[in-house]
Amino acid sequence: EDELRGQEAAAFVVLQEQSEQAQQSCRRAIRAAIDAREMPRYIRFIPELPLNDRGKVDKDLLLYELQ
Hints:
The protein is an alpha+beta fold. Helices cover about 35% and strands about 10% of the residues.
């Protein structure tokens, strides 16, 4: 939570190749594509997006990943 803006932005990224080099390349690409004010505070690399029983992204599990 952010007192002024509400919740802070986070990015969860699934890469085909889970290497440090791939993660660094992805971070550079995000920085090049997004304005500094829009940059997510957290970037987490995960093996796959967690899905709920209806096949939608389970946001609660993603929030747990940030803790």
